[in-house]
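B., you asked whether I could sanity-check this one before it goes into the benchmark set. Here's the sequence:
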Amino acid sequence: MRYFFIFFVIPMSLFWGWYLLAYNDVGLGTPIFTRQAHDHVFGIYGQILGIDPDTIAPMVARACVVDGAILLAIIAFRRRKKIMAWLAQKKVLQRAAPSA
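And here's what the prediction gave me:
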């Protein structure tokens, strides 16, 4: 789980944090968080990919959701015994709670 955070959650939160700050032109005293930097970066990506720069952000968002779902499925598969035991314990507690 530690590697999941190191290699997926932290880079995604840094990227989306920069994206939202730059998209909304927050600035924070640095030129990297300005709308001009945002437009310049996505303009370069658009030229490299040969697509409209406005379509890149939704494509990246969809890719992040799909990648996250795949990674969570892998983690759930690797921990399926613990998850099944937790669900069984929860089911036993739910059955015992109404009768008490």
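One thing to flag: The chain has a mean pLDDT of 89. Otherwise nothing jumped out at me.
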